[in-house]
Amino acid sequence: MTTIGIECESIEEQSWGVGRIVRKLLEEISRRPELQKEFTFFLYFKSKVPDLPFLNNPIFVKYVVWQPFPRKSFVLYYYLFLPLTLWFRRLDVMFFPNYMLPLIFFGTSLVMLTQDIYYEMRSPAQRFRHRLAYHIFSTWAAMTATRIMAISESSARELMRLFRIPQKRIAINHLAVDAPRRPDTVSEKGLEFTGDLLRKTSYFLFVGQIFPRRRVRESIEAFKSIAPDFPGLKFIIIGQDRYRPPILGSMITDVNRELGYEAVLLRHYVPDDQLALLYAHARACVYVSSREAFGLPPLEALSYKIPSVIADNQTSQEIFGTNAFLVEEPTEPASIAQAMRQALSDEKARENIIAAADTITQRFSWRAHADRFLDIVRSLTPH
Questions:
Q1: Cα–Cα distance between 140 and 104 in angstroms, integer?
Q2: What count of other Cβ atoms lies within 10 Å of the Cβ of residue 226?
């Protein structure tokens, strides 16, 4: 029996990013009873085991890592008490999805790493303690982890260049997209944006953590410049403002005042039912990230036959080819505005993108992601 540990703090609360990836991986594993003959998965949490039905599967053994303090510290959990706990467990492989490897972990390790960390550890927009943690523990992962899991081919190339990781230590495991939900199966009870309301509204959609590299500020400026030509057009933004200091609240207030209506809406989080409706009825997803290891929201939008406005870079080319409205200069609002205008008015381009949607999204399933993860694990175990 192969024992696999997975660090799971990221799924304790509702979250995007790493938490979503871990949750989807565990959901997929839970659907496969045949894996119980080969694996036991030990899941480690900082504060609590979340109430997620798939975690009740007997293939999972769950632990809340002990700390001697009432308030559970992530720093002490991740860098001290978790590796101490693992010292006594002696698992075959331990998966750290959170880009960092504790210094005192000794064993076979698989660490998910992206090139974004290299830049975040040098970014003045990041808090000092986060930059320091990335400098120490992400660099340590790059240097010493048994295997690095990259989430795209372009990201793997960047990891090799930036961290000087040998290619033989990197395994590529693309992320995935959920099958789209039919709007008529979504419960609209208690939702702010109903399907009927969204069908009557032409809007752009952004979903994700709002880091400066994702150019939401520039996208709002671009939206402001074209909105007068498209009466009633809105820009719905779902995510946490990660600018330092936060800037979007006041900026949106000013833009809405200038345009004379509530054109830009910011919500920190919406439930899955709401997100499905927002994707299904959007005119386009706007996700103009200057630098991205993968970028799930544009792929999720495409699963709903919704095109995206995205930066023209290696990752975008790898996933979408030309099947998106590409922004040549993602730092320039005028360049973003040009692509947004095209997404609203170029019906032929929209038809071509929608026609290619199934071919693209079928390449990226969570089942295939889980298969590749298990193959990586098997390659790291002696039996």
A1: 11
A2: 17
Same fold, 2-176+365-380 and 183-361: yes
CB 89, CB 5: distance < 8 Å: yes
Q: Given the structure tokens 């993968």, which residue do they identify? A: 294
CATH of domain 2-176+365-380: 3.40.50.2000
Best CA proximity match to 207, nearest among 301, 294, 120, 302? 301
Nearest one of 314, 306, 311, 313 to 360, comparing CA atoms: 306
Domain ranges of the chain: 2-176+365-380, 183-361
Structure tokens belonging to residue 169 = 């230590």
Rounded to the nearest 5 degrees, what angle is found at the Cα of 362, between the Cα atoms of 313 and 204?
55
Segment 334-364, tens digit of pLDDT: 999 999 999 999 999 999 999 999 999 988 9
The CATH class for the domain spanning 183-361 reads alpha beta
DSSP string, 191-253: -SS-HHHHHT--EEEEES-B-GGG-HHHHHHHHHHHGGGSTT-EEEEES-B-SSS--HHHHHH
Structure pTM?
Answer: 0.82
Instruction: Please check whether residue 261 is in contact with residue 142, taking contact to mean a CB–CB distance below 8 angstroms.
Output: no
